[in-house]
Design brief:
The structure is a single chain. The chain is of the alpha/beta class and 390 residues long. It is 42% helix and 13% strand. It contains 14 helices and 13 strands. The strands form three sheets. It has a seven-stranded mixed β-sheet, sandwiched between helices. The protein has a three-stranded antiparallel β-sheet with strand order 7-6-11, with no helix packed on it. Strands 10-12-13 form a three-stranded antiparallel β-sheet. Strand 4, helix 6 and strand 5 form a beta-alpha-beta unit. Helix 2 runs parallel beside helix 9, helix 3 packs across helix 7 and helix 5 runs parallel beside helix 6. 49% of the residues are buried.
Length: 390
């Protein structure tokens, strides 16, 4: 039987499923409850942030991140810079919530925000916020980004959905922004089937996130904070549990998903070590291959969701994709490439010519990276692409 190489494989291992079954047999609370709070505490402790708020997907996490910033009334205008190479729901909330999104081209090395282009946009538009995506786990140039943040005074919204465990100068990504998001979808580093986190060190944003996650009510706030709101709005005592202070959503997750998450957190170091090691093998092979180009960041430890490279041409990419399929190696493009060319953006704001992002869209392909892959598997995949021997 020919071995299949999937982009994601057994993210939730059999042992975690067995633990979940045993837990379910105790007839526990299933909807959002004590395990969600425990999972949030353990996640924040692992990451190194003060707060974490668990929701039903990484996309919902991004939606709450944008909306919490809007509700906080800390914005000086409605302009926000978003990265061209990203995921639709990394930028869609800016459109959905009435921001004025401005798209920035990608950096040639890490595929995140191009810092020179970003500074030009900052000078021209003076936006209230910048959204940074660590593309497939490769951090942005965070030293320059933080210097620009200090100089221009924008809020930093950090999409870390595909960068769990990556570090920049030894510091965990997801700890640089005013808020950060993570995805716990099956295809990512860790999984609760579906799920996401919003993380922050700011108490004011945390209180907003807790409310807008659950209808806009104050049930999840600390008793002291809830009492202050009730006094401020002169709420009748009996009505306090069903008083809605903000126009919220319902994007809660469940204790069932959180129970999986607590199992998954025990595997963090193993997952990170395997993905970092695999990524280094890919990089060592592709950086020496004529005509190919791959992401890099010399100041980062890269815990990638998958490895991405650029082929010498679109035609060459088609040939590589066919060879990968013949050898049962799963591949796909990188997100939406130049996101301004996607219909949801193009129909509203028009397509933009962004040279680096356009090249990525035309020539990129992803390769598997997950803990079940051994070094010989990575070399086999590299040989299939680079030598065509298989």
């Amino acid at each position: 039987m020919v071995k299949k190489y999937l982009l994601a494989d057994q993210t939730i291992p059999h042992a975690d499923i067995q633990e979940l079954i045993a837990w379910l047999n105790t007839r526990p609370w299933l909807s959002q409850g004590p395990l969600v709070k425990e999972f949030e505490r353990e996640w924040a402790k692992w990451l190194g942030t003060k707060h974490a708020v668990y929701v039903n997907s990484g996309s919902s996490a991004n939606l709450l991140m944008y909306y919490a910033f809007l509700v906080s009334k800390k914005h000086k205008n409605h302009r926000v810079i978003v990265p061209a190479v990203s995921w639709p729901t990394s930028v869609a909330p800016a459109l959905q919530l009435g921001f004025q999104p401005i798209m920035c081209d990608a950096d040639e090395e890490d595929f995140g925000l191009d810092m020179d282009s970003l500074e030009n946009l900052l000078k021209k538009y003076r936006p209230t916020a910048v959204t940074a995506v660590h593309v497939l786990g490769v951090p942005n140039k965070m030293d320059r980004l933080l210097a620009l943040k200090k100089k221009y005074g924008f809020a930093l919204l950090e999409d870390t959905c595909a960068a769990f465990g990556s570090r920049y100068d030894g510091r965990m990504v997801g700890t640089f922004g005013d808020m950060s998001t993570f995805s716990l979808f099956y295809g990512h580093h860790l999984s609760t089937i579906e799920g996401g986190m919003v993380c922050t060190d700011r108490d004011d944003l945390y209180d907003i996130l807790l409310q807008i996650r659950s209808h806009g009510w104050a049930k999840d706030l600390s008793p002291e904070t809830e009492r202050k709101l009730a006094r401020k709005y002169k709420v009748m005592e009996f009505n306090r549990p069903f008083t809605f202070y903000l126009p919220g959503f319902n994007v809660r997750s469940t204790d069932l998903n959180a129970r999986l998450g607590l199992c998954q957190l025990r595997r963090t170091e193993h997952v990170i070590q395997c993905r970092v090691a695999n990524h280094k093998i890919y990089q060592s092979r592709f950086t020496k291959a004529p005509g190919f180009h791959c992401q890099k960041n010399d100041r980062a430890e890269i815990c990638s969701i998958s490895f991405v490279a650029l082929a010498p041409s679109p035609k060459k990419r088609d040939e590589i994709a066919a060879r990968l399929r013949q050898n049962q190696i799963e591949t796909r493009p990188l997100g939406g490439g130049n996101m301004s060319r996607q219909p949801f953006w193009k129909d509203r704001l028009g397509a933009l010519k962004l040279p680096v992002s356009d090249r990525i869209a035309a020539t990129c392909f992803q390769l598997p990276n997950h803990p079940l892959l051994e070094p010989e598997d990575i070399h086999f995949i590299c040989d299939t692409v680079l030598t065509g021997r298989h």
